[in-house]
């Protein structure tokens, strides 16, 4: 039996473009040719702007219905595997628990399909739980759901972005990304840091329409929503990434989701750009970070900035080296996990189990509609 070395990556949502270069690179490390099917909105933001021109995947793009139609007409033998980089399909006009509930069928390559969960919401449904039990669901980090271990497949490569080694002067640039981080409570915490340390730190806020008090407009720069090139350039220039993941997050949903399989995008950026995170103690432990790779505080954000203010360049560089090593280890683990999955799928293919599994899940979807 001949197994082709070609993968189709599918991202049906109008977001999550930042994870595509990392997934593509991991498959290329394993020797696969890669095609990508993505939303037009994501394509316009150019997530592969810093990717090697000689290694660029073949990219097709359109709206959700375009992607659905392409998947319906795919020749199963063209790809070894179909890889869905986000299992949930969620946008303004749709709110499906999973991609296959929207599609109403399971697209497959020679060895079937694989899905990435970003939280455990879809796992509450029988069809998604069945995929998990079959070993066809991965997460960005290792996670356990109902005593079932979900293995990691972690994309943290964003291309050959020119990285600055950090500001050698006294003023450190702190980057905060994500509109959910810009509520009044979090802004007040940033104001306190500015008040306490005067001109020691500057802040750059990316990802939302934020209104900052006039007194702080020199120290807090608002960039709004950026394309990937501008976003990556801002990350490359910063000294630290402020995750705003604190032990006292007021919103119950926001607090619990990060302990239920959701990986903060700041974690991915820290790994990809070798930039230390500023993060609350409980969340750092949850993501496997410690004082050697991040700035951790228990209660007050000021605690973290007191530590940064005392951090010498030699220690800062050691933190970055630790992050780089952590990223390499995670790459190795991700590749190992996928290779094992492919090996097991080959066995299933030989004994004719893959089609039976797909029929079972499709039947469950139709029964639950």
Structural features, described:
- The chain is of the alpha/beta class.
- The chain folds into two domains: 6-158 and 330-368, Rossmann fold (3-Layer(aba) Sandwich), CATH 3.40.50.2000; 172-311, Glycogen Phosphorylase B (Rossmann fold, 3-Layer(aba) Sandwich).
- Helix content is 40%, strand content 19%.
- The protein has 13 helices and 16 strands.
- The protein has helices at residues 20-29, 40-45, 64-72, 99-103, 126-133, 184-197, 228-237, 252-257, 265-273, 281-287, 301-309, 313-351, 353-368; strands at 6-11, 33-39, 58-62, 81-84, 89-91, 94-96, 113-117, 137-139, 143-145, 148-150, 172-177, 201-206, 220-224, 240-242, 277-280, 294-297.
- The chain has a six-stranded parallel β-sheet with strand order 3-2-1-4-7-8. The protein has a six-stranded parallel β-sheet with strand order 13-12-11-14-15-16, sandwiched between helices.
- The longest helix has 39 residues, at 313-351.
- The two termini are 37 Å apart.
Low-confidence stretches: none
CATH architecture of the largest domain: 3-Layer(aba) Sandwich
- Total of DSSP H or I helical runs spanning 4+ residues: 13
The counted number of beta strands is: 16
Structural class: alpha/beta
As a percent range, the share of strand residues is 15-25%
The CA-CA distance between the termini, in Å, is: 37 Å
Mean pLDDT: 88
Main β-sheet, in a few words?
Answer: 6 strands, parallel
CATH superfamily name of the largest domain? Glycogen Phosphorylase B
What's the layout of helices and strands?
Layout: E1 6-11, H1 20-29, E2 33-39, H2 40-45, E3 58-62, H3 64-72, E4 81-84, E5 89-91, E6 94-96, H4 99-103, E7 113-117, H5 126-133, E8 137-139, E9 143-145, E10 148-150, E11 172-177, H6 184-197, E12 201-206, E13 220-224, H7 228-237, E14 240-242, H8 252-257, H9 265-273, E15 277-280, H10 281-287, E16 294-297, H11 301-309, H12 313-351, H13 353-368
Parallel strand pairs: 1-2, 1-4, 2-3, 4-7, 7-8, 11-12, 11-14, 12-13, 14-15, 15-16
Antiparallel strand pairs: 5-6, 9-10
Helix pairs in contact: 5-13, 9-12
């Amino acid at each position: 039996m001949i197994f082709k070395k070609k993968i189709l990556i599918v991202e049906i949502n109008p977001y999550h473009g930042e994870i595509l270069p990392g997934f593509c690179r991991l498959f290329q490390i394993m020797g696969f040719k890669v095609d990508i099917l993505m939303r037009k909105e994501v394509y316009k933001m150019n997530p592969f702007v810093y990717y090697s021109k000689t290694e660029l995947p073949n990219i097709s793009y359109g709206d959700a219905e375009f992607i659905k139609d392409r998947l319906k007409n795919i020749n199963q033998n063209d790809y070894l595997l179909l890889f869905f980089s986000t299992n949930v399909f969620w946008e303004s006009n749709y709110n499906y628990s999973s991609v296959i509930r929207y599609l109403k069928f399971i697209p497959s390559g020679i060895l079937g399909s694989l899905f990435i969960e970003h939280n455990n919401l879809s796992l509450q449904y029988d069809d998604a739980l069945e995929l998990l039990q079959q070993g066809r669901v991965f997460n960005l980090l290792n996670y356990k759901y109902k005593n079932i271990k979900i293995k990691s497949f972690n994309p943290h490569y964003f291309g050959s972005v020119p990285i600055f080694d950090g500001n050698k002067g006294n003023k450190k640039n702190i980057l905060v990304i994500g509109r959910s981080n810009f509520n009044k409570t979090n802004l007040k915490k940033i104001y306190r840091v500015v008040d306490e340390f005067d001109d020691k730190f500057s802040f750059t806020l990316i990802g939302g329409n934020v209104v900052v008090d006039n007194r702080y407009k020199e120290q807090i720069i608002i960039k709004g929503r950026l394309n990937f090139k501008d976003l990556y350039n801002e990350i490359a220039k910063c000294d630290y990434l402020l995750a705003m993941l604190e032990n006292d997050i007021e919103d119950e949903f926001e607090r619990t989701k990060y302990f239920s399989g959701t990986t903060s995008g700041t974690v991915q950026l820290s790994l990809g750009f070798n930039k230390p995170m500023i993060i609350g103690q409980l969340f750092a432990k949850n993501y496997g970070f410690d004082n050697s790779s991040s700035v951790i505080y228990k209660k007050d954000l000021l605690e973290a900035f007191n530590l940064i203010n005392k951090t010498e360049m030699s220690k800062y560089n050691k933190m970055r080296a630790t992050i780089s090593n952590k990223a390499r280890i995670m790459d190795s683990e991700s590749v190992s996990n996928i290779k094992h999955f492919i090996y097991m799928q080959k066995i299933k293919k030989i004994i004719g189990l893959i089609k039976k599994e797909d029929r079972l899940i499709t039947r469950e979807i139709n029964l639950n509609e």
